[in-house]
Each structure stands twice: as structure tokens, then as C-alpha cells.
Design brief:
Helix content is 69%, strand content 0%. α1 crosses α3 (47-57). It is flat, with a radius of gyration of 20 Å. By secondary structure, it is mainly α. The protein is built from 10 helices and no strands. The protein has helices spanning 5-19, 26-33, 47-57, 72-88, 93-100, 105-120, 125-152, 160-168, 170-180, 184-203. The N and C termini lie far apart (58 Å). Residues 25-44 bind DNA. This is TetR/AcrR family transcriptional regulator C-terminal domain-containing protein.
């Protein structure tokens, strides 16, 4: 039975959604497709190449529409939000992307737009590169924590040990309770705006 590249990627995403990152193995993927493991390498050189293709697919709808008159700050905010939403679509999406971080078509398109926007403001190569990737690292990190937290979100009936710990650290307890009851968008936008404002300061630009 011959399989096509898209079938492999789609089946991998289905396994990711159903079993999580740890459950996405070559053996389970082959079983899902009804083939032997070596057949998976018809379109991919090795396991890493296959997983990189799956990770790249997570981002295929990000930054596909350019806005010529858009300020770089607005672009960074928009693309960052698009990346987060794309990763939230799939279970462990952020962890999976962070594990592979492919140098691929979709990643290149996204980063090229962001880097070019910074360079158009006069940023040097280092500032443009680190400004872009630091922003994306924040997005991936926050989203990974968000997804992990949603799976293990504690209720308000905390264990005695946790209650004791929070009583000893009231500042942490207050922040913990606030975050439990807050909208994740609030936290994400707070950190993202801080990142963008930091870049404005680095570039000595007005907000």
C-alpha cells in the first residue's frame, strides 16, 4: 500500500490530538496508516524530517496575508497571536513545535516578515534576529505552559500540603489565585506587549 505525504502528516496530527506528544510514535503512526514503519520513510529521510514536517504544518495558516501599511508593532502582535492560536488547535502543539523547531517554509515565511519589519525601522542584524526569535520563544513558551496548565488545572479544593505551602508564601498564593481565575489572553497579551515595548526601547522608537 502506497501512502502520500499528506496522509502521513494528517495521521500524525490526529495521533497528536488523541494521544499527546508522547503518544506520537513511529510505530503508532504506521499502525494508524496500516503500513510498516519503513514505509513512512518513502517521503521523509528520517524520523526528524517527518516530525519537522508535522510541526511546520501547524503554522501553515500563520502570516499568510501581508498588510503593507501595518506598523511593525501591530505586525508582531498579530503574528504572535496567530502563532498561539495555531498551536492551541492541536494538543501539545507548542511543545511539539519547540521540540522540533523546523527550519522550513512556514517558519521561514513568518520569521522573514518579522525580521524585515524590524530592519525597515533601522534595526541591525542582531537586533532584528534576536528581536524576532525572542518574541517567538515567548509565544511558544507561554502557549506550552498554557496547554500544560489546562490539562492539569487544579481546582480550588487544594491538598493540605499545597495549602500549607501557599500559607507560607502569601505573595505567590495571591498571584496563583489570580491566574487561576484570569483569562489566559490577559496574561499572553501582557507579556507580548512587554516584549514589544522592550524592542521599542532597544530601537529607541516611540510606541
Amino acid at each position: 500500500m502506497k501512502i502520500v505525504r499528506a496522509e502521513v502528516i494528517n495521521s500524525a496530527l490526529e495521533l497528536l490530538d488523541r494521544l499527546g506528544m508522547e503518544g506520537l510514535t513511529m510505530r503508532k503512526l504506521a499502525d494508524a496508516l496500516g503500513v510498516q514503519v519503513p514505509s513512512l520513510y518513502w517521503h521523509f529521510a528520517n524520523k526528524d524530517a517527518l516530525f519537522e514536517a508535522v510541526a511546520d504544518t501547524l503554522l501553515e495558516q500563520v502570516a499568510v496575508t501581508a498588510v503593507p501599511t501595518e506598523k511593525w508593532q501591530t505586525m508582531f502582535f498579530r503574528i504572535s497571536c496567530e502563532v498561539r492560536q495555531a498551536l492551541l488547535v492541536h494538543r501539545d502543539g507548542a511543545r511539539f513545535l519547540a521540540r522540533t523547531y523546523p527550519l522550513s517554509e512556514n517558519v521561514a515565511r513568518i520569521t522573514s516578515q518579522m525580521i524585515a519589519a524590524l530592519k525597515d525601522t533601522g534595526a541591525d542584524d542582531g537586533t532584528a534576529a534576536w528581536g524576532t526569535f525572542s518574541t517567538l520563544y515567548y509565544v511558544i513558551g507561554f502557549t506550552g505552559e498554557e496547554q500544560a496548565f489546562s490539562e492539569k488545572r487544579p481546582d480550588h479544593n487544594q491538598s493540605p500540603d499545597l495549602q500549607s505551602l501557599l500559607e507560607r508564601y502569601p505573595a505567590a498564593a495571591s498571584a496563583w489565585r489570580y491566574m487561576l481565575n484570569s483569562d489566559p489572553d490577559e496574561g499572553f497579551h501582557f507579556g507580548l506587549n512587554m516584549t514589544i515595548h522592550g524592542l521599542e526601547q532597544k530601537l529607541n522608537l516611540p510606541g
